[in-house]
Design brief:
Shape: globular
Strand content: 15-25%
Number of helices: 12
Number of strands: 11
Oligomer: single chain
Order of helices and strands: HEEEHEHHEEHHHEEEHHEEHHH
Radius of gyration: 27 Å
Length: 392
């Protein structure tokens, strides 16, 4: 019901949203060395550029066409980027939704098959991954050592670490199970592909690559940004990056595969003049926050401490099965029933239909389990006010 409230609140924001016009201006520029490049207007008179209508855009374009463009500053730095930890349940669901177009329910069903065991020619079914319902990033030391041995042997010594990398688990995580990882990294996806269904292979490949990448060397990325002065008052900016050493990104990058690459920038000295080839003013309108899809709703539930690894997929299924929300164009839209039930519950039980209440209840149940809170006292504190509201 809190998930339905989150979806209803977002839908109301969307319906109440009033778009505002704004304009962006980019410049096609060329220096003494190739390639030509495209820079964005970022500041006017030292302040953030805010171009609200066509009249303002036309005035700026006129100024720029009569002025000159000069490189003001070039910034270069090498950034070290660390891999992400192995999957926990929520992150596996989000990645499978975004990269594989699996639903949360399908992700957990296929993960269950990989966990329970598959015949891969070793004389009996073999569990290929660790338990898939977990919010811990902990991994066993022997698994980390095995990953280092595999990386050194199969990928290259320069990609291995001197000692394994371990990740801190969030305070509120239940640490009974390890992170989701392959039971043996030597069961490389391509080696066992013939034994797996297409869906099993896709999910196993994702889990395997994320885990092995988590034990690989940092990526080294050269970043360069050029600040350009146009007609005295206007500052343009363009950024680009090249990968000096891919490290873990050879196997798995945090960016989705279809993420656009940054520009390749020419080698030019500071204070050098640029030729303006073309100005590109463009009209836009602000947009409301998007509706929740499965991945973003799981992320929102996790962020607010609602649910557990075992319940994310169930929550997403139940709210659809009950008819509270519809799944339209891969996004959740509240139904009329969803709005009515949500509004009635929020009005009648404001303390319970509250994100912080649900998150606190999860923490209280953890305290009961650990023995630091008495369960009868917890139930009594809840039930007295609840019964009064229910009777009313």
């Amino acid at each position: 019901s809190v998930a339905v409230k989150i979806i209803c609140d977002r839908e109301r924001e969307i319906r109440a949203f009033v778009p505002e016009e704004y304009w962006t201006i980019t410049a096609d520029l060329e220096g003494s060395n190739p390639p030509p490049f495209n820079a964005h207007l970022v500041k006017i008179d030292g302040k953030k550029a805010q171009v609200k209508n066509k009249e303002a855009s036309d005035r700026i374009v006129q100024d720029l066409e009569q002025g000159s463009f000069v490189i003001e500053q070039i910034r270069k730095k090498t950034v070290k980027r660390n891999p992400q930890p192995p999957f926990i349940t929520s992150k596996l669901q989000q990645d499978a939704i975004n990269r594989l177009r699996f639903s949360a329910k399908k992700t957990m069903m296929v993960a269950q098959q990989l966990y329970e065991g598959i015949e891969i020619g070793t004389g009996g079914p073999e569990g290929l991954i660790t338990y898939m319902r977990t919010d811990s990033t902990r991994i066993a030391p022997d698994a980390a050592q095995e990953a280092q041995a595999y990386i050194s042997k199969e990928i290259g010594g320069e990609y291995a670490l001197a000692k394994p990398r371990f990740f801190k688990t969030k305070n509120k995580a239940q640490d009974a199970h390890e992170a989701i990882r392959p039971t043996s990294v030597f069961h490389a996806p391509d080696k066992i592909k013939s034994y797996l269904s297409p869906d099993q292979f896709k999910l196993y490949d994702l889990i395997w690559k994320r885990f092995v990448a988590s034990q690989m060397a940092q990526a080294l990325i050269d970043q360069k940004s050029i600040l350009i002065n146009g007609a005295g008052r206007y500052q343009f900016s363009v950024s680009g990056s090249t990968i000096q050493f891919p490290g873990y990104m050879r196997l798995y990058s945090a960016d989705a595969p279809d993420k656009t690459r940054e520009a390749v920038l020419p080698e030019l000295p500071e204070k050098s003049a640029l030729n303006l080839k073309k100005l590109n003013p463009k009209q836009h309108f602000t947009k409301p926050k998007p509706r929740f899809n499965e991945a973003s709703l799981v992320k929102e539930l996790e962020k607010n401490g609602i649910g557990r690894p075992s319940t994310y997929a169930a929550i997403l299924s139940v709210i659809q099965d009950k008819g509270y929300v519809d799944f339209v164009n891969r996004s959740f839209v509240p139904s009329e029933l969803g709005f009515i039930v949500n509004d009635l519950l929020v009005a009648s039980f404001p303390d319970i239909l509250n994100i912080s209440f649900t998150a606190q209840m999860e923490n209280n149940l953890d305290d009961v389990e650990s023995g630091s809170m008495d369960e009868v006292r917890l139930l009594t504190q809840f039930y007295g006010p609840f019964k009064q509201a229910l009777d009313k």
